Amino acid sequence: MSNNLLKGKKGIVFGALNDQSIAWFVAEQAYAQGAEIVLTNAPVAMRMGAINELAAKCGNAPVIPADATSLEDLEKLFTGAMEHFGGKIDFVLHSIGMSPNVRKGKHYTDVNYQWYQQTMDVSAISLHKTLATAMKLNALNEWSSVVALTYIAAQRIFPDYGDMADAKSLLESITRGFGFHYGTANKVRVNTVSQSPTVTTAGSGVKGFDEFISYAEEMSPLGNAGAIDCANYCIALFSDLCKYVTMQNLFHDGGFSNTGVSHSVMSRFSPDQE
Predict the structure, then answer these.
(1) 54 and 39 in contact (C-beta within 8 Å)?
(2) How many C-beta neighbours within 10 Å does residue 227 have?
(3) Could you read off the pLDDT of 86-133 as tens digits, one per residue?
(4) SS3 (DSSP) at 144
């Protein structure tokens, strides 16, 4: 149901690969709530995904290829988006993450450091580059909202999450840094959303992912938050309802982040459990 929360707003959505992507749902919900959007992803990801199908569903939204690690590509993206919109931008979703070490099963204590640097650049430093480019081009309106997707492995150890945990920690630090500087300069707010483990193309590459989804479901008082609910949360953050929320890491995980243990999990260790 649309409440026109984003009526008149214009935004860029990074990272929609297919209909398993959280970014896909964010784009659909943003359009449903009255926004105009531009879609973007790395050229290689666009060849693998179905972004043009999403564009058609979102009012034939323009698709502008951009490698978010490339300052040149980012400048073309923001310039092209502003030309399309006929003005500045009101919201940005950063939904980008990739680790060659995790994909190839490298243990955290024995990573390929060239791949490690690639993980940092793609999954975290790309946010810094995105915001720096937007600031340089004066591309964001006052009271704009930037949301990046993160995970609780930035604060707690999840052994098979590997170097992505380091990337998410850096991503959250960049959020605070740019949240301060961009907020001071132009009242732009920057936040991260720490989502429940969610079935996506990227997430399914983590060893033991299916088992961990089940564990998180049993640990969370409300159960795992789904992709569509995460999208709705992002829409609220893009809207004027959250005008003074910035520099925050906001957990959207059904209560997992504040639960020490659940009865369901404890029961597995009961002497009566066969």
Answers:
(1) yes
(2) 20
(3) 999 999 999 999 999 999 999 999 999 999 999 999 999 999 999 999
(4) strand
Helix (H) or strand (E) holding 24: helix 22-32
| Distance separating alpha carbons of residues 193 and 253, to the nearest angstrom | 9
All structural domains of the chain, each given as residue ranges with its CATH number in brackets, are: 10-269 (3.40.50.720)
Using a cut of 0.90, tell me whether the model's pTM lies above it: yes
Lookup: tokens for 47: 């060849």
Tokens of 146: 């930037």
d(CA 54, CA 76): 21
Residue with tokens 């030309």: 83
Q: Quick one: CA dihedral 238, 216, 174, 248, positive or negative? A: positive
CA distances from 252 to 194, 229, 256 (A): 6, 9, 9
Phi–psi pair at 29, nearest 5 degrees: -70, -35
Asked whether the beta carbons of 23 and 15 are under 8 A apart, the reply is yes
How many helices and strands (H and E) does the chain possess?
11, 6
Return d(Cα 180, Cα 245) in angstroms, integer.
12
